[in-house]
Amino acid sequence: MMIDLIAHIAKANGLAEPLAKQALGILLNGADRQGAPLAAAIFRTVPGTRALAARAGSDIGAPTGDIARLIELTPGGRRRVVEHMFGALRNAGIDHETTGRILPSIGAWMQDTYGIEGLGLLGALIAHDSEAGAAAAARAA
């Protein structure tokens, strides 16, 4: 299924499949690092995507470890994750316009394939600060 998702992203956005795979990995890594709904839904339904996100994180030098993950759940940490994610996409050669089209293409595929709605919106990719999230991070620390 992950191969089908990558092929869809490539075709929908005019990308070569290796670049589409790299973009998906970067997006999923960033979403996972901040606890966004996109990562959780895709990891749950598309085998291999968690490993892809981890490899992408390693390739782009994403911080790892428990302390780094806690920091990335803070408001400032979440902003840094987003900046790092979009910077990694730019470094991969994906321009701003294409970046803006990738997420809706992922959302459309998830809806068509699995009936999961709402993943094509920026809010599915970028976790929002909340009291519950801050309280959970504080408890974990």
Averaged pLDDT: 87
Give start-end ranges of low-pLDDT stretches.
Answer: 130-141
Distance between the termini: 36 Å
State the order of secondary-structure elements, H for helix, E for strand.
HHHHHHHHH
Structural class: mainly alpha
Fraction of residues in helices? over 70%
Our Rg estimate from Cα atoms comes to: 14 Å
What coarse outline follows from CA principal-axis ratios?
Answer: globular
How many structural domains in the coordinates? Answer: 1
**Count of individual helical segments:** 9
Would you write up a description of this structure?
- The chain has one domain.
- 76% of the residues lie in helices and 0% in strands.
- It has helices spanning 2-13, 17-33, 37-45, 49-60, 66-72, 75-91, 96-114, 122-125, 131-140.
- Helix 1 packs across helix 2, helix 2 (17-33) crosses helix 4 and helix 2 packs antiparallel against helix 6.
- Residues 130-141 have low confidence and may be disordered.
What keyword list fits this structure?
disordered C terminus, 9 helices, mainly alpha, globular, 141 residues
Helix and strand topology:
Elements (H helix, E strand, L loop, with lengths): L1 H12 L3 H17 L3 H9 L3 H12 L5 H7 L2 H17 L4 H19 L7 H4 L5 H10 L1
Helix pairs in contact: 1-2, 1-7, 2-3, 2-4, 2-6
Quick overview of this protein structure:
The chain is 76% helix and 0% strand. It is mostly helical and 141 residues long.
